[in-house]
Automatic annotation (TrEMBL):
<keyword id="KW-0552">Olfaction</keyword>
<feature type="transmembrane region" description="Helical">
    <location>
        <begin position="100"/>
        <end position="118"/>
    </location>
</feature>
<feature type="domain" description="G-protein coupled receptors family 1 profile">
    <location>
        <begin position="39"/>
        <end position="286"/>
    </location>
</feature>
<keyword id="KW-0297">G-protein coupled receptor</keyword>
<feature type="transmembrane region" description="Helical">
    <location>
        <begin position="138"/>
        <end position="166"/>
    </location>
</feature>
<dbReference type="InterPro" id="IPR000725">
    <property type="entry name" value="Olfact_rcpt"/>
</dbReference>
<dbReference type="InterPro" id="IPR000276">
    <property type="entry name" value="GPCR_Rhodpsn"/>
</dbReference>
<feature type="transmembrane region" description="Helical">
    <location>
        <begin position="23"/>
        <end position="46"/>
    </location>
</feature>
<keyword id="KW-0675">Receptor</keyword>
<keyword id="KW-1003">Cell membrane</keyword>
<dbReference type="GO" id="GO:0004984">
    <property type="term" value="F:olfactory receptor activity"/>
</dbReference>
<keyword id="KW-0325">Glycoprotein</keyword>
<dbReference type="InterPro" id="IPR050939">
    <property type="entry name" value="Olfactory_GPCR1"/>
</dbReference>
<keyword id="KW-0807">Transducer</keyword>
<keyword id="KW-1015">Disulfide bond</keyword>
<keyword id="KW-1133">Transmembrane helix</keyword>
<keyword id="KW-0472">Membrane</keyword>
Length: 286
């Protein structure tokens, strides 16, 4: 229709209905972001400087830590800007870029967890062949391929969503741009819903892998259940942004916040490396 006016920006509603909790939410999210980024940076540095952690599993953990840092950086700074400075507007390009990177990282994370499950399964069930199979070249490929697969799938999803017409209203009832909240605003055929389901399936398929990889630690299973449980509800059920955005806080804030503690407090090798690093640092200062 030639008289149709398409929107050129979106307004992220976020948690406007919780005005009385804005200060608390802002403080919690800011603190969570700082802890998550700092914790993952510490993990990356420990794995880099400690020779005892130069194994395939810890390579994947360091890559996972990088993913987590970018994952929270894609959404939380914008949310803080929204809550603190009331800057709710986001351009069309900015919105789709955020959606592309967020979903790409989320899918990459799932595939990387499947790789980690494969690595642990091989190490436990085929210890004699482990070193001959997990050579440097294969380890590198297994660390890179999840990124490639994740961003290819996310590109297809974003491309389909970008081809929808958005002619108003332009208020996204969420704190970041995602497929579901955006498609609810579209004024054209919502064929992209099928792509969103495929995206969900690609995430769900890694649940068993993650549980298998971390079956010896109940805390890992708790985090896996939180992340995948909420993701399944958000992506595989009818759209309800009012409820979905609160669930999204779990896999965008809570789960990334817990992961650094899991890899340090519940991992003997990382705890030992952290202790050695602290002793070296204090000895240097003395």
């Amino acid at each position: 229709n030639s008289n149709t006016t398409l929107v050129n920006e979106f307004i992220l509603v976020a948690f406007s209905e919780l005005q009385h909790l804005q200060v608390f939410l802002s403080a919690f999210i800011l603190l969570s972001y700082i802890i998550c980024v700092t914790g993952n940076i510490i993990i990356i540095i420990l794995i880099k400087v400690d020779p005892l952690l130069h194994t395939p599993m810890y390579l994947y953990i360091s890559v996972f830590a990088v993913l987590e840092i970018i994952f929270v950086t894609v959404t939380l700074p914008k949310l803080l800007d929204n809550l603190i400075f009331r800057k709710k507007k986001i351009s069309i390009l900015g919105c789709f870029t955020q959606m592309y990177v967020f979903n790409g990282l989320g899918i990459s994370e799932c595939y990387l967890l499947a790789v980690m499950a494969f690595d642990r399964d091989l190490a436990i069930n085929n210890p004699l062949r482990y070193s001959s199979i997990m050579k440097k070249e294969l380890c590198f490929k297994l660390a890179v391929y999840p990124w490639i697969a994740g961003f290819i799938i996310s590109f297809l999803t974003t491309l389909c969503t970008a081809h929808l017409n958005f002619c108003g209203p332009n208020e996204v009832n969420h704190f970041f741009c995602d497929v579901g909240p955006l498609q609810s605003l579209a004024c054209s055929d919502l064929y992209v819903r099928k792509v969103a389901v495929l995206l969900t399936i690609s995430k769900i398929r890694s649940v068993d892998g993650k549980k298998k990889a971390f079956s010896t630690c109940s805390s890992h299973l708790t985090v896996a259940s939180l992340f995948f449980g909420t993701t399944i509800i958000v992506y595989a059920t009818p759209i309800d942004s009012q409820f979905d955005k609160f669930l999204a806080l779990i896999y965008t804030v809570l789960t990334p916040l817990l992961n650094p503690f899991i890899y340090t407090l519940r991992n003997k090798a990382v705890k030992s490396a952290l202790k050695r690093s602290i002793e070296t640092f204090t000895g240097f200062l003395a």
